[in-house]
Specification:
single chain; alpha+beta; Arc Repressor Mutant, subunit A; 2 domains; 42% helix
C-alpha cells in the first residue's frame, strides 16, 4: 500500500501501474498548495472532510463523495481536522474515457470498496486480478454522474478578485454596490456577469460560499453558534434556518451524519 508520502516521481509519470492508490491518515489539519502532475487524481475520504480547488471551482467533499481532477490540471487540497482518506492516481493513457474537467462524483458502494481494496496493493506491477479491479475502478469513475457539489468561480479578473476575497472572509458583509466599487466594475455588470459566469446571483453565490465554509467548520468541531457568528449571520437561528433549507437538516444533525458516515461509510448507501 502506498501512503501520503508517495514519491512524487511515481505520479509524474505514466510508467508503471495504470492506477496507484495512496492512503492518508492524519490527526490534524493539513494542506497541499497548488500543484499538478501527469496522472489524473481521484480524491476521497473515509473519515473527515476535504476541500479541493482548481482555477475555476472549489469543492467541499464529505466521505459520501469524491473529486476527480484530470492530468496536468493545477489543483490544491486541504483536509479539515482528523482525516483518513485516499487518492487514486490514474495513468494518463487511461484518462481519455474519464471526465475531461474536474468534477465531484457521489461515491458508489462498488467504487468505495474497490478503492479500499486497491489501497492494500503493494507498489509495483499489477497481477491479473488487480488489472481487472483497476478496470472496474476506471469504469466507475467514468460512468458515475457529476454531482453539483462545488462552487464555480468567475473568469472575469474583477469578479474573481471579489470571489477570492469572499472565500478568504465569507463573513464580509459589504453590499453588491460596495464590492462593485472595490473591484472597479459597475453594479449592473457585476450582477449580470456573476450569473453568466457562475450560474448563481451574487447573493446566492455568497450564501453558498458561507455554507461551504460552514461544512468545513462543522468537520472541525466548531460549535454551531460560533460558526453562525463567524460567518456573519445576525443570529444562530438565521444560520440554522438557511442551513436546514439548503441541506434538509440542521447543522447539528449534518455533523452527526458526517461522523456516522466516517465511522461506517456504507451507512449512506
Amino acid at each position: 500500500m502506498a501512503d501520503e508520502h508517495l514519491d512524487p516521481a511515481l505520479i509524474n509519470t505514466s510508467d508503471g501501474p495504470v492506477i496507484i492508490v495512496a492512503a492518508a491518515h492524519q490527526a490534524t489539519e493539513r494542506s497541499a498548495g497548488p500543484h499538478a502532475h501527469c496522472r489524473g487524481q481521484l480524491f476521497g475520504s473515509v473519515q473527515g472532510l476535504l476541500t479541493i480547488g482548481v482555477d475555476d471551482g472549489v469543492w467541499v467533499v464529505p466521505a459520501t463523495h469524491a473529486v476527480w481532477v484530470p492530468p496536468h490540471r493545477v489543483h490544491w487540497a486541504r483536509a479539515h481536522g482528523p482525516f483518513h482518506g485516499y487518492a487514486v492516481y490514474v495513468a494518463e493513457p487511461a484518462c481519455p474515457g474519464l471526465p475531461a474537467a474536474p468534477c465531484a462524483i457521489r461515491m458508489s458502494g462498488l467504487l468505495r470498496e474497490a478503492t479500499q481494496r486497491a489501497a492494500r496493493w503493494p507498489l509495483g506491477p499489477l497481477d491479473n486480478y488487480a488489472e481487472r479491479l483497476a478496470a472496474v475502478i476506471l469504469d466507475e469513475i467514468g460512468s458515475l454522474p457529476a454531482d453539483p457539489l462545488g462552487l464555480p468561480l468567475p473568469r472575469d479578473t474583477r469578479l474573481l478578485r471579489i470571489a477570492d476575497a469572499l472565500l478568504a472572509d465569507p463573513a464580509d458583509s459589504r453590499s453588491l454596490e460596495d464590492w462593485a466599487q472595490w473591484a472597479a466594475i459597475s453594479d449592473r455588470s457585476l450582477s449580470r456577469r456573476f450569473v453568466a459566469e457562475t450560474g448563481f446571483t451574487f447573493t446566492a453565490w455568497r450564501q453558498r460560499a458561507r455554507l461551504m465554509r460552514a461544512l468545513e467548520l462543522l468537520a472541525e468541531a466548531v460549535p454551531v453558534t460560533h460558526i453562525a457568528l463567524d460567518l456573519g449571520y445576525s443570529t444562530p437561528s438565521t444560520f440554522i434556518g438557511l442551513f436546514r433549507r439548503t441541506f434538509g437538516v440542521t447543522p447539528a444533525v449534518y455533523r452527526e451524519r458526517l461522523q456516522r458516515r466516517s465511522r461506517d461509510p456504507a451507512s449512506d448507501e
